[in-house]
Design a protein that fits this description.
The structure is a single chain. By secondary structure, the protein is mainly alpha-helical. It folds into two domains: about 35 residues, no CATH class; about 130 residues, N-(1-d-carboxylethyl)-l-norvaline Dehydrogenase, domain 2, CATH 1.10.1040.10. The chain is about 60% helix and about 5% strand. The chain is built from eight helices and two strands; from the N terminus they run βαβααααααα. α2 crosses α4, α2 packs parallel to α5 and α3 crosses α4.
Length: about 170
C-alpha cells in the first residue's frame, strides 16, 4: 500500500476527543500520533508544505529539486521567515526548526511529488490559500513582514489561475 512520507498518517490532539477518535481507528493500518501540543504539530506540518508544495509546483519538478544547493538556500530563507510567523502564533519551535525541516525534506525520495506538483500537471487550481496564504495572513495579523512568502503566494496565485484557464499541457514548461 503506498504511503506518504513521514512517521504517522494522522495527528490528533491528545485529549478526550482525540482519544475517542483514535479508538474508532484502532485495527486500521493508519499510524496515529496524539500530541498534547497539536498547535505546534499542525504548524510543523504546514511549514514543510510551505516549501515542498510551492517549489515543486513552481519548478515543475519532483522532490529532487531540493537537492540543489541554490534551491535549498532559498527554502531555508522561506522557512526562516515562516517560522517567525509560526512562533508569533504560539507554536513551540526549536531554534533550528527550519534547518530540521529541510533535513526531513531531503529524506523523501527524489522522485516523490507533492499535491501542488500533481495539481499543476493536471491543470487543477492549487491549495495556495491554505498553505502559503496562511503564513502571509497570520504574519499580517502579528505585524510581521513576509516578503518571500508573499512573493511565492503571488506567483502561486497567478499559476493557479492560469490552471483554470488553460489545458494542462499549456502549463508544463518545455
Amino acid at each position: 500500500m503506498p504511503r506518504h512520507a513521514g512517521a504517522h498518517d494522522l495527528a490528533l490532539q491528545d485529549d478526550e476527543n482525540g482519544q475517542e477518535f483514535s479508538e474508532l481507528l484502532r485495527g486500521t493500518p493508519l499510524r496515529i500520533l496524539r500530541s498534547a501540543d497539536f498547535h505546534t504539530l499542525a504548524w510543523r506540518k504546514l511549514l514543510i508544505n510551505t516549501v515542498a508544495n510551492p517549489v515543486t509546483a513552481l519548478t515543475s519538478q519532483r522532490q529532487a529539486v531540493f537537492r540543489r544547493k541554490d534551491v535549498e538556500a532559498a527554502c531555508l530563507a522561506i522557512l526562516e521567515e515562516a517560522a517567525a510567523v509560526v512562533r508569533a502564533d504560539g507554536a513551540q519551535l526549536v531554534a533550528d526548526e527550519p534547518a530540521q525541516i529541510l533535513t526531513t525534506l531531503l529524506t523523501y525520495p527524489a522522485d516523490a511529488g507533492t499535491s501542488m506538483y500533481f495539481d499543476r500537471l493536471a491543470g487543477r487550481p492549487f491549495e495556495v490559500e491554505a498553505l502559503t496564504g496562511a503564513i502571509v495572513a497570520i504574519g499580517r495579523q502579528h505585524g510581521l513582514p513576509t516578503p518571500l512568502n508573499g512573493l511565492i503566494l503571488g506567483l502561486l496565485r497567478a499559476l493557479s489561475e492560469a490552471a483554470t484557464r488553460n489545458r494542462p499541457s499549456d502549463l508544463l514548461l518545455t
